C-alpha cells in the first residue's frame, strides 16, 4: 500500500489516529480516515460522538492531542496558509458580521482567495440573488445556512467540509442544496449529517462514529449489508445500538 501511494496523488484527507482530550473527557479516541480526491465522505454519529471535533482537527481549527492530519498532502497547522486556499469549511454556527449584506459578505470572502467564484454566481448557486442587499442579521435561519454554504464554496476549494448541511432547511431548500453538492464533481466533500436520506443520496462512503471511535465504515450499501438492514437508519441503530437522534446528554 505504501509503495503504491508514493506514486499516486496525495489523499484528499489522511487522518491518522486522531485523539482529542479535554481534561478527563476524550472527545475523539483514535480516529483514522482516508478520503480520496473527488469522494463525498459522510460522517454519521449521535450527538456528542465526536464528529465536529474530528473535522475541526482536519480543518486545522483544533490541535489534536495525538495523531496527525494531512489535507492534500499538507499539514493544516504548519502549512496553514496553503491549506486555507484549498479548503472550504462550513461549520454548524456561522459567526459572520451581521451588519454586512449577503453580497458584502460574499465579496469579503472572495477577497481571501486567488480564484474565487463570481459574486452573482455564488449567490445564485444558493438561490439568494434576491437577498443580496439584505443584512446577514435579517436573513432567515435557512438563508443564513445557504449563505454559509456559498461562503464555504467561494474559493473553489479542492476539499469542502460541511457540518449539518441542511439542518433547519425546508424540504425544497434541502433538495436545492443537495443539487449544489451533487454538482461538485471535482471536489472532495466531507459531510457531517444526522439525515440518513442526505447521506444515502450524497455520500460515496460513510464512517459511523460512536463515543469518539469509528465503529463501521463503507458505502451506504456495504453498511446496510453489514447490519443486514433495509435502510441506513436501521443499519445505524443495529451497529451503534442507538438512535441517530439520541443525545449523550452531557452537552
Ligand atoms: N471545548 C470543549 N471542552 C470540553 N468538552 C468538549 C469541548 N468540545 C466538545 N466537547 C465534548 O466532546 C464530545 C464530542 O463533541 P463534538 O461536538 O465533537 O460531537 P458531535 O458528534 O459533533 O456532536 P453534535 O452532533 O451534537 O454536534 C462531546 O461530549 C462534547 O461535549
TrEMBL record:
GO molecular function: ATP binding; ATP hydrolysis activity
Compartments where located: Cell membrane
Domain ABC transporter residues, every copy: 13-236
InterPro entries in alphabetical order: AAA+_ATPase (IPR003593), ABC_transporter-like_ATP-bd (IPR003439), ABC_transporter-like_CS (IPR017871), ABC_transporter_ATP-binding (IPR050763), P-loop_NTPase (IPR027417)
Major localization listed first in the record, in broad terms: membrane
Record's bilayer topology term: Peripheral membrane protein
Entry keyword Nucleotide-binding: yes
GO biological process: response to antibiotic
SUPFAM superfamilies: P-loop containing nucleoside triphosphate hydrolases
Keyword terms: Antibiotic resistance, ATP-binding, Nucleotide-binding, Transport
Protein's recorded name: ATP-binding cassette domain-containing protein
Lineage: Bacteria, Bacillati, Actinomycetota, Actinomycetes, Micrococcales
Amino acid at each position: 500500500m505504501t509503495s503504491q501511494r508514493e506514486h499516486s496523488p496525495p489523499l484528499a484527507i489522511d487522518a491518522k489516529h486522531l485523539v482529542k482530550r479535554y481534561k478527563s473527557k476524550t472527545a475523539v479516541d483514535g480516529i483514522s480516515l482516508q478520503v480520496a480526491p473527488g469522494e463525498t465522505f459522510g460522517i454519521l454519529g449521535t450527538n456528542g460522538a465526536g464528529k465536529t471535533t474530528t473535522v475541526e482537527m482536519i480543518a486545522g481549527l483544533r490541535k489534536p492531542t495525538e495523531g496527525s492530519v494531512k489535507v492534500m498532502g499538507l499539514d493544516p497547522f504548519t502549512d496553514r496558509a496553503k491549506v486555507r486556499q484549498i479548503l472550504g469549511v462550513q461549520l454548524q454556527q456561522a459567526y459572520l458580521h451581521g451588519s454586512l449584506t449577503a453580497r458584502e459578505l460574499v465579496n469579503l470572502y472572495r477577497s481571501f482567495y486567488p480564484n474565487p467564484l463570481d459574486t452573482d454566481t455564488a449567490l445564485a448557486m444558493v438561490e439568494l440573488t434576491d437577498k443580496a442587499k439584505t443584512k446577514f442579521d435579517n436573513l432567515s435561519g435557512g438563508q443564513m445556512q445557504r449563505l454559509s454554504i456559498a461562503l464555504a464554496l467561494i474559493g473553489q476549494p479542492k476539499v469542502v467540509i460541511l457540518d449539518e448541511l441542511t439542518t433547519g432547511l425546508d424540504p425544497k431548500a434541502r433538495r436545492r442544496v443537495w443539487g449544489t453538492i451533487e454538482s461538485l464533481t471535482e471536489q472532495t466533500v466531507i459531510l457531517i449529517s444526522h439525515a440518513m436520506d442526505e447521506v444515502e443520496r450524497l455520500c460515496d462512503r460513510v464512517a459511523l462514529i460512536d463515543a469518539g471511535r469509528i465503529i463501521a465504515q463503507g458505502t451506504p450499501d456495504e453498511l446496510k449489508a453489514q447490519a443486514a438492514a433495509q435502510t441506513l437508519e436501521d443499519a445505524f441503530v443495529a451497529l451503534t445500538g442507538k438512535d441517530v437522534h439520541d443525545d449523550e446528554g452531557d452537552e
